[in-house]
Amino acid sequence: MSPAQFRSIRRTMIKCILSTDMSNHAKLLSEVGKLVELKNKKNWSGIEQIIGDNEQKNIENQQLILAECVHTADLSNAGKMLGIFSKWTDYVYEEFFNQGDVEESMGKKISMLCDRKTTNINKSQIGFINFIVRPHFEMMLKLLPHIQEYLENLKRNLKHYENELEMENKENK
Fold it and tell me: pTM for the complete prediction?
């Protein structure tokens, strides 16, 4: 490949990797939201018109959509069947809690969601779904209608964690 092609592919790969960093979530959501608005204004039926040709602006759109798809995949466990989602939730929180244990042993302030003594997993999953994953999936659904199944699973998973929190609250009274 040519040096220009290499740079383009490398730039795209870096953007995709960085798209999984939650500090970039809002910016990505906003940028893709603008493409969704453009799609709606022009009455386009799918994303093909957004990424359709190889003009520079469309190449940028292609890279943005690809990065957003990688970010969607990174968040996708919340939209999988409950057994899979809850298993991955356990893995993620064990990683968080291990980080919190290390921070505590070093005398540092424990990062948000990393304190195994105070973090309420049910509450944090409800917040994660309501404020991060659901708005993201609802926006992506406008570009990729075939992810509807994930949104349906997401709603069931949210209900599960709401029920768990309700039971927990009843037990604590």
Answer: 0.83
